[in-house]
Queue: 3 jobs
Job 1
Amino acid sequence: MAICGQPAFVDTRTDTVTNPILVIEVLSKSTSDYDRGQKFEAYRAIPTLKEYLTAAQDRPMLSTG
């Protein structure tokens, strides 16, 4: 994840950032469908997000969403 400026957090949590400009997701066979589906849809709702990059765990391949 990359952020421009200061990180904005959810409530008092410091492990959930709400203002990323870039998210990079490493896909595994067991989570690939979820990561490219429901999780990506949730990321698309983040107004600051500019790029979503997925990396295959088992082969040298990257793709943007």
Job 2
Amino acid sequence: MKSKADFGMIGLAVMGRNLAMNVESRGFTVALFNRDFHKVESMLSDMPGRNFIGTMTYEDFCAKLERPRKIMLMIRAGTPIDEVIEEILPCLEKGDILIDGGNSHFSDTNRRTAYLRGKGIHFIGTGVSGGEEGALRGPSIMPGGAVEAWPFVKDIFLAIAAKVEDGTPCCDWVGEDGAGHFVKMVHNGIEYSDMQMISEAYFLMKELLGLSNEELSRVFSDWNNGELNSYLIEITSDILKEKDKETKEYILDLILDTAGQKGTGKWMSETGLNLGVSIPTITEAVFARCISGAKEERVNASKILKFESKPYLGDKNALIEDIRKALYASKICSYAQGFQLMRGAANEYKWNLNYGNIALLWRGGCIIKAKFLGNIKSAFESNPKLSNLLLDEFFSTIIFKSQESWRRVVALSVEHGIPVPAFSSAISYYDSYRTERLPANLLQAQRDYFGAHTYERIDRKRGEYFHTDWACLGGNATSSTYNV
């Protein structure tokens, strides 16, 4: 075994442990550190003969790393990251590299990159997706931050990343400062909406058509063999047929209908508001989790706010196909919103993002991996300045072919009192985007009436602002204009 390690891992919970094992399995020697030294001892005793070097202190840890030191932190996001940075800084030298592989907010990564640059240390904020299995076998990796550090970690990252069919790694340099963690946040926001839309499709087929779990499992399995091929569709088919070993009942039917969340979906919604980018489908998926948490209130409301739904008497197979098309069209809108947010962030933070390459990062190893991500890459390769995925010929054709089914599904859901917030917000987003003239003219007139906020006119050039004394109250004072 080498006396010095190629790579260091701080934090040996499941993700850190599995990533360390992944790195070591690719021929690198890994130094291990955890505040609870028992986790280091456990790895060394569980895997004797492997190229791991155990350490008890930061001084010992750093002394056993080749220069420049490449150190990955797999610990809880937030204050703990800052605490570890301050604790390990005295042991580092100029040119060393710290990597945050957790779910940190991109603004924290912006701040940490600048702070450490001032001390001669390179910081990389790295989104890692794929869960425990991905960490061990190959995750999707989204690094960003100090670009000077990329050549030193590139070979390790490319080695441990998931690979697509042609062997291309699901890893590439994303951009400056917090760009890597921003892209991971967008990944998670799309993940929220994907999961919500799949759940809505499941609920419609269960409630309206009365399909059994086995029938539903076969439907999702069939869908996974076509355009909707994806990790989430695949595992949904598996989930639907799994039975509890003791009760012999379907496990899904025993799970309480309250969804948890760790905050990245909320971060994305907040960022959309801050940047003035419309991402309603992703935001509705966050709100759907919020309202699911009000279980006791919903149970009580169900007894008071009654609605008698009529049974569905139409063609069962035709509706299943309509739901499939509605899911696909809604999914396209969700991804379009995610890429719109990245474009807004690139403009705001002066990041040079390659949207086609980002789509490729998600084709393997991560939760939202899906067949049509290759089509997203092709869309941006054909037109790097593409303003919205909906305008690409491949995707606009799918939407056009799915439109009637999509509208039928949303209308039928409303008619039968079945909530489909993601489906309905997606089609509203699509209709808003394709509508030449929206009723915002009245909204702006109202703002000018009560607050003298001014407005632009269609018969004058953009950038000229006007005010009307609507109620003949007099006065020429106007409010300043402001756009998010």
Job 3
Amino acid sequence: MWGPIEEIAVVTGVSEKRRSRSSSIQNRNSNGEYVVTSNAGHVLFIEDDPATRQSVASFFEEHNMPVCAVAGRHEFGRHFAGSNPSLVILDLRLGQEDGLVLLREIRSRSDVPIIVTTGDRRGEIDRVVALELGADDYVTKPFSLRELLARVRAVLRRQALGQAARARDPERGGFRFGGWQLERRVRRVIDPKGDPVLLTKGEYVLLVAFLEAPQRPLSREQLMQATKIHEDIFDRSIDVRVMRLRRKLETDPNAPRIIKTERSIGYLFALLVDPF
């Protein structure tokens, strides 16, 4: 439940009227960074605009989401080395710094979930490259604080479900989606009529990759990593597998409603998924 608020600020790089800040977010260091009392389980927000840092940090704190907000690469390095953030929000336009370079650095060191923010004319290109480099989601500026918080919570939920699934026997359980059911132990897919649908090994692992990240844009690179069976798998083979999988799942493969194409990015599994 969302608490009563006076106004949801929309982040544009210029601060707007906001609610009063919680007491913990008023603690700043000598560099003007907004820090939290404890580093456990917090969001690390990397943004060079002070008004945006304050808006996001204040709003998240008021909704019980601890935040450490820093201005750029140098501050990020100090905080990341000494803490264990649950998620990173990274602005790709960090003044003279390149956020994509920092994204690549983070991903080379950690599998922490990352949401990127973009807002200039190269936004689409940056989003595509960021997803290819391993970002988990993106938000375009101007964005509402409520939407950003919802996306953070959604990514953290997906991560928790993935961790729980990996902790269990990987051959137990399965997924339900749109009347369909996938059963891991027997590697069986059942259609809404109750009939089994035969999938090849490649189609099966591709479907599992989609079901583990529903309603989230996935780049071809991400799908290649998730479904790699042979070392010689190549980019266009993902498109072929998606086409074949659509023929078995979609009522009309030429107008797909389950596996949708995300222009210049990759694909998105559009249905709600219920793991069991």
